[in-house]
Amino acid sequence: MKRSSYCGNVREDSIDKDIVICGWVHSRRDHGGVIFIDLRDREGLLQIVFQPENKETFKIAERLRSEYVVSVKGLVRKRPKGTLNPNLLTGSIELVVSKVEILNTCPGLPFEVSNYREISEELRLKYRYLDLRRPSFQKNFIMRHKVANEVRVFLNSESFLEIETPFLTKSTPEGARDFLVPSRLHHGSFFALPQSPQLFKQILMISGFDKYYQIVKCFRDEDLRADRQLEFTQIDLEMSFVEENDVMDVIERMLLRVFKNVLNIEIKIPFERISYADAMLRYGSDKPDTRFEMEIKDFSIEFKECDFKVFSSVISKGGIVRGLCIPEGASFSRSEIDGFKNFAIEYGAKGLVWMKIMESGVESGIIKYFKDEEIKVIKSKFGAKLGDLIVFLADEEKVVVQCLGALRLKMGKELDLIDKFKFNFLWVVDFPLMEWNKEEERWQTLHHPFTSPQGVVSLNKKNVGTAKAKAYDVILNGIELGGGSIRIHRSDVQKEIFDILSTSDESAKEKFSFLLDALTYGAPPHGGLALGFDRICALMAGEDSIREVIAFPKTQKASDPLFNAPTSVSEKQLKELNVRIDVG
Predict the structure, then answer these.
(1) pLDDT tier at 70, thresholds 50, 70, 90
(2) Exposed e or buried b for every residue in 224-247, given b needs 16+ CB within 10 A?
């Protein structure tokens, strides 16, 4: 029997027609001698009916169990009145079976595919082929395919060329750890799997291809979390003779098309733009979630000479005082507020002070240190209302920013202030070109050392602290979808950057000689961006983890239970590579 239709695609226009469908037994019900089975394939479910008059098919139906694979022929009919299922696209029809063939059987399941419940990640990934059969899960991957297709159609229409770049490349240890691959032909030497195609796409621009893109695998040996895997996919693109606005415009129009054609959601472009400094001040994050308000306010000027010495002394030593107004937070108990203090301490703060806006006035253990005018300023700056709770942190800027940013998100979730059906896009721009690393006592780049500075004639270690980068990150609902920049296209500027980073000429040449040489051969101005493809798909699917949109992800412990990887290899393989394992 040759399949003539997918289960989930059968509609009322097939009524009174004979069709053949194939799939898995999703569920089985015996109703007074008539057997009903929901047959499932990637497109959905269709109810099939086995009637006792057809003894041959009915006898086979009695043997069917969950996840048996069958091929079925029958007549499509309208479901009897009162038996329609509005939750299914095929809920108004059913198929009366005239012929059935069991193509394969299935033993007892480690977990039910039809009735999904919370099971361990280890078990899900060990039996990933069963996990992937779940209808809600298959929708994620059908959607992922559609997103990739829309991206390609859009970029092709914009004259981008899809060009593949190598997976075996040179190790340039910057940021995350590289995955190293020993070379059989060059004993003692190693390839590295690329953390991104960054250097390759810059070479392609120097080669004159003008517009490049790739939906590409990248590799980073780093600790895993909900939005991070050892291997991940990104939409990578680069353009020549452009500035920031050109790259940002392409990304906005591409995402507009993707959301419209895949989810039928109209997103508004151009996206809001916010400076890095403003994002850190107002939201305590360089990837702010703007689906709810509750902005952080700075009081370092107002409290510079206040009587509350905890604040004034911190400010005099170069620290800051910032606060957060939690709506209707005055109802929190003392123990709950103590919980906020402990939360702050986890982020490195020394503590946290609070004020409640009550009918009787402002309640707080520190209220006696504040003048009436200072209280008015606090209430006015927050727009605080009766029943609100205001919390303050006084410390060095980094601690205050991180702590209040985390507390803001925590409160947004716990108080249910976040609209989960919103898609709030924005750009974070005007990043500092570099930041000072206290531990190593040196400058380091915020993005990567190939990012072009904004309008600086000549850079040095004295003025680099105020220099801004031609960099931009696109954010969706508090998640960084991707980042990019205009690249350095002149070798003299690139040398200035390496000098500030204390990268010697010898070290720069050893790591990046191919790029540095290429820049001297007529490199055009160019820039680009990389978008986290897995992150986009997870957000569009409403999933909290990118593992739900990656077919074969690794566990939190960076292992693959299905293929039992990583694993040891034979002595013969190691000998060919001239590699010896030292278990000590």
Answers:
(1) very high
(2) eeebbbbebbbbbbbbbebebeeb
